[in-house]
Amino acid sequence: MGNGQSCKIVGIGDICLETELRCKLLLNKVRNVPEIRLNLISTGQLDDKCYSNEFSNGRWKLSKGSLIVARGQKTDTLYRLRARHNSGQVNVAEDYPIELWHRRLGHISKNVALDGDVPQQVWTSKEVSYKHLRVFGCRASVHISRDERSKLDAKVKQCIFLGYAHVEFGYRFWDPNSKKIIRSRDVVFFKD
């Protein structure tokens, strides 16, 4: 501490703060020291995470690149940050002494344990089917629509399955002949 004294650290963990500007600020290796009345943030650790601190005329600004993450004003000798703890966002901690358990039980995680089950199986109480899933890299015949081919052209292309389309419904394939990625729903997969 600044006055040469030391205080007992009862726990170390990560927390996520939401600033007044609605930005999330993740603080790692936060020390829980009950003897300190204020929550202090190390500007050195913020600097290590590539944040920029500006102090001038009783005002403080924290930014990362062009994004302003937080602002604060000087009160007495400290710059204050108004933020709220985003509970449930980060739940990591080291050292679980007994005196911390009463604090932990007050902030129980909202996530329910699934005991190794798939969420859909827990929600519907039905066995989950995986028959629609395909192996990446398997061969497939992709149907070519009438408006993309002439009367004598082939009706299918032999392609390699890459995965599922990100934006639109369907599958993504690599066409080795045209060396392009195509998207289609009309397809027959081969079991290799």
From TrEMBL:
InterPro entries: PolX-like_BBD, SH3_retrovirus
Retroviral polymerase SH3-like domain ranges (all copies): 138-192
Sequence ranges assigned to domain Retrovirus-related Pol polyprotein from transposon TNT 1-94-like beta-barrel in this UniProt record: 1-51
Xref: Pfam families: Pol_BBD, SH3_retrovirus
UniProt name for this protein: GAG-pre-integrase domain-containing protein
Species, as recorded: Punica granatum
